[in-house]
């Protein structure tokens, strides 16, 4: 059977191009597809690069971890912060409301509720606690116990040391009387005017300091107007031996002090004690001693510092100097908030008739001041003491209208009668 001419021509063309196609495929194979050895070498090189990079990443991670650990171990802990209801709290800010309680929430879980018609301030914070000043009224504290917890609640001359507990404290500023009611845990209460006392869960206790009475020769006559008195020159009064906090040094102690005094550099570096910081810690005898030893009693001061120094003198049992300092505030800073507060405290150092004038002066200058309720209640007591029954009933009725749940409400009701 013969093959068609067209098919023979096609076979001839395939035979002619076959060698060319084979050579082309060989060239492409050599250029584009690496040999097995080359592929193995490339894989090994890539593995080396990855192993090297992996070791570097591991080392970097380890270094970063160590650095983070060192930072966590040696970074100083931050001081506690707190919220006043929904607002950030500020140190030294007055906290209190005549009508409703105010809650302070600290970031360690501690809560302090300042009751209605009370005043308090957070004076300082640390990583382990805070210092709270209860100016008057009541508060309830729920302090979370942690390692090295250190909280203090100060009220007048009293300092409550807290490590982790729940309790209520009530401070009657007009009578300088503190009451503590324990819910759980324990506290220690200290004061220059009373021995330290420890309280445990379920216990309650009251403390009071005797009110200092100024000598007769430093008080003006009852008929004289309080604001008419100029400030008398101040003098330094030596501290009685019993009120000095430091005891007489022993011979070895004296030798050590003599040795330390021989080093001027050490004396220069030693921080100078500050009476203000001692006063804020309710260490009034120590603060007064610093004032006298540094000769600061006659130095000109601001209204705030003069008032604070007068409080220190009063609470460290130096009523004569306290009276002069309060009068200095009245004379030098007449019309100021500090002058009104000085009038209230002068009432505490005065006899009944003069005390009445000072309290009325305070209420006239600050009718809605922080001590208004206490001044009003004290006026009722003075009227009763002076035999002014009708005046006492009128004041008691006015007091109950303004402060129906005040600290003197029960007494006022007893005066008004059925």
List keywords for this structure.
single chain; 418 residues; Jelly Rolls; 13-stranded mixed sheet; 13 helices
Q: In terms of topology, how is this protein built?
A:
Elements lengths: L4 H28 L3 H39 L7 E3 L2 E2 L13 E5 L4 E4 L4 E8 L2 E14 L8 E5 L2 E5 L3 E7 L4 E8 L1 E6 L2 E7 L3 E5 L42 H11 L2 H6 L5 H6 L3 H10 L9 H13 L3 H14 L4 H12 L3 H14 L6 H14 L3 H14 L6 H8 L2
Parallel strand pairs: 6-7
Antiparallel strand pairs: 1-2, 1-3, 3-4, 4-6, 5-6, 6-9, 7-8, 8-11, 9-10, 10-13, 11-12
Helix pairs in contact: 6-7, 7-8, 7-9, 8-9, 9-10, 10-11, 11-12, 12-13
Q: In this structure, how is the largest beta sheet organized?
A: 13 strands, mixed
| Rg from Cα | 41 Å
> Approximately how much helix is present in the residues?
40-55%
Question: What is the number of strand segments?
Answer: 13
Residue runs with pLDDT of under 50 for 5 or more positions: 211-269
Give the topology string: H per helix, E per strand.
HHEEEEEEEEEEEEEHHHHHHHHHHH
First-last Cα distance: 149 Å
Helical segment tally?
13
Mean pLDDT: 74
Strand content: 15-25%
Give the structural class. Answer: alpha+beta
Shape: elongated
